[in-house]
DNA sequence: GAGGCGTGGCT
DNA sequence: TAGCCAAGCCT
């Protein structure tokens, strides 16, 4: 059928999402055109499980202090842990420093541009490797994070929530990407942004969604999630809370502290000891020759 | 492959 | 209020 009553075919969802991004994207410093891939890598590691608002100020000071991988690799671990501040999961800070050392030593100080080499770096997994290749090097890459999996689950599969990561995730998102390479690169960040700002986990803002007219979940009447509830992580009383308190004391201390000082953080001595041991094992804490505790100095004559 | 691993804002 | 949730990685 032809004629003016027939609307032109709607543009593909991927194209619509790229155009939406041009008008709706947040202005984030690591998205500055021409930004150094190292700066992108640092941002991506900081953003693992951590909100943008908390990352931004830390990222700024971090990049000013350690603008290149070799700078970070040369820094004492204690300073790196302190600079990480309260971003959480501080093992990420140590792994980022280790990744910086690997880049400096094995890659001539240049962040590798291929996914396999990136994934071989400490703390860099499937998501972060592709994010660096795509956002840092402008490569056409499918980039799948929790936002992308949620958008695909709703828009394509008509499900309220994404299940666990699947082998088909990369193909799912690649199928939506625009043909033009430059637009496909923007699409990768645009889908994440859509998931972060509009197609959010709690109450999705469908009225603001550029592809609501073709969303399978919306067209199916918003069927509820039918799988098992994702169990929410406990925090109060866990080792994670205790480790956090121990590290909080050590970050604030300007000299090695006694075991007695650490004992004020948590009453249960068994749990406290277990957590201190795990921090020593992780390399987040070291013990001095006289039995005191501090953040790791990186000195070669340290006693552990 | 399920569970461990921080922290704090939001509803 | 008390979960829920946030650009994952590693074992």
Automatic annotation (TrEMBL):
<feature type="domain" description="HhH-GPD">
    <location>
        <begin position="46"/>
        <end position="197"/>
    </location>
</feature>
<keyword id="KW-0004">4Fe-4S</keyword>
<dbReference type="InterPro" id="IPR044298">
    <property type="entry name" value="MIG/MutY"/>
</dbReference>
<keyword id="KW-0408">Iron</keyword>
<keyword id="KW-0234">DNA repair</keyword>
<dbReference type="GO" id="GO:0035485">
    <property type="term" value="F:adenine/guanine mispair binding"/>
</dbReference>
<dbReference type="InterPro" id="IPR000445">
    <property type="entry name" value="HhH_motif"/>
</dbReference>
<dbReference type="GO" id="GO:0051539">
    <property type="term" value="F:4 iron, 4 sulfur cluster binding"/>
</dbReference>
<dbReference type="GO" id="GO:0046872">
    <property type="term" value="F:metal ion binding"/>
</dbReference>
<keyword id="KW-0479">Metal-binding</keyword>
<protein>
    <recommendedName>
        <fullName>Adenine DNA glycosylase</fullName>
        <ecNumber>3.2.2.31</ecNumber>
    </recommendedName>
</protein>
<dbReference type="Pfam" id="PF00730">
    <property type="entry name" value="HhH-GPD"/>
</dbReference>
<dbReference type="Pfam" id="PF00633">
    <property type="entry name" value="HHH"/>
</dbReference>
<comment type="similarity">
    <text>Belongs to the Nth/MutY family.</text>
</comment>
<dbReference type="GO" id="GO:0000701">
    <property type="term" value="F:purine-specific mismatch base pair DNA N-glycosylase activity"/>
</dbReference>
<keyword id="KW-0227">DNA damage</keyword>
<keyword id="KW-0378">Hydrolase</keyword>
<dbReference type="InterPro" id="IPR023170">
    <property type="entry name" value="HhH_base_excis_C"/>
</dbReference>
<dbReference type="GO" id="GO:0032357">
    <property type="term" value="F:oxidized purine DNA binding"/>
</dbReference>
<keyword id="KW-0411">Iron-sulfur</keyword>
<dbReference type="InterPro" id="IPR004036">
    <property type="entry name" value="Endonuclease-III-like_CS2"/>
</dbReference>
<dbReference type="InterPro" id="IPR003265">
    <property type="entry name" value="HhH-GPD_domain"/>
</dbReference>
<dbReference type="GO" id="GO:0006284">
    <property type="term" value="P:base-excision repair"/>
</dbReference>
<dbReference type="InterPro" id="IPR011257">
    <property type="entry name" value="DNA_glycosylase"/>
</dbReference>
<keyword id="KW-0326">Glycosidase</keyword>
<dbReference type="GO" id="GO:0006298">
    <property type="term" value="P:mismatch repair"/>
</dbReference>
<dbReference type="GO" id="GO:0034039">
    <property type="term" value="F:8-oxo-7,8-dihydroguanine DNA N-glycosylase activity"/>
</dbReference>
């Amino acid at each position: 059928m032809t004629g003016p009553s027939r609307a032109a075919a709607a543009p593909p969802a991927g194209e619509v999402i790229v155009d939406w991004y041009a008008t709706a994207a947040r202005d984030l410093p690591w998205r500055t055109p021409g930004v150094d891939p190292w700066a992108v890598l640092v941002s991506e590691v900081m953003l693992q499980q951590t909100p943008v608002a908390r990352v931004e100020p830390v990222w700024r000071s971090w990049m000013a202090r350690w603008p290149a991988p070799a700078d970070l690799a040369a820094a004492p671990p204690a300073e790196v842990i302190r600079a990480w501040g309260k971003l959480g999961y501080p093992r990420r800070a140590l792994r980022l420093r280790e990744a910086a050392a690997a880049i400096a030593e094995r890659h001539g100080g240049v962040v590798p541009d291929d996914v396999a080499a990136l994934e071989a770096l400490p703390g860099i997994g499937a998501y972060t490797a592709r994010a660096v290749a795509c956002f840092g090097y402008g490569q056409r890459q499918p980039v799948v994070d929790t936002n992308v999996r949620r958008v695909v689950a709703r828009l394509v599969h008509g499900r309220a929530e994404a299940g666990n990561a699947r082998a088909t995730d990369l193909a799912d998102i690649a199928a939506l990407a625009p043909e033009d390479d430059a637009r496909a690169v923007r699409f990768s960040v645009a889908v994440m942004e859509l998931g972060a700002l509009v197609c959010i986990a709690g109450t999705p803002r469908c009225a603001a969604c550029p592809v609501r007219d073709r969303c399978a979940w919306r067209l199916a009447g918003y069927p509820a999630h039918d799988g098992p509830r994702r169990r929410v992580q406990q925090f109060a009383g866990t080792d994670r809370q205790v480790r956090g308190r121990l590290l909080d004391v050590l970050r604030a201390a300007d000299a090695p502290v006694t075991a007695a000082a650490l004992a004020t953080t948590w009453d249960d001595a068994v749990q406290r000891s277990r957590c201190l041991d795990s921090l020593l094992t992780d390399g987040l804490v070291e013990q001095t020759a006289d039995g005191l505790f501090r953040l790791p100095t990186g000195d070669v004559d340290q006693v552990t």
